Amino acid sequence: MARTSRDDLSFGGWAMQALKAGKMAGIHPPGLDEALKKAVKCLKTRSYDKKAGFVYVPGSHGGGLGGVGCLCLQLLGQAKDSTVANALEVMRDWTPTFEKKHMSGGSCSQYYSYYAA
Length: 117
What we know:
mainly alpha; 50% helix
């Protein structure tokens, strides 16, 4: 398998959901539980910003992927974590829109709406 240099929550969110789906389907390859723990750590440290909630790339301050971060932490057993509560609070006043007001870097606002729903 080819390695990728992608380091964004969009890409990571899909990977985390796939790991959880595999576990729920009874697939338990060696290292799965460790990978899930690392995913939680990554969400809480690299993909989180207190003002923006969950961010697209580490170190950015643009929101828009709050729904991705919240969903993944909820799937990974961290629904009551303070980062989830904060990200949901950040998202509270967001409304679905075709404008890019919740996104950074020219991202698609429909992607935000998909996860936020």
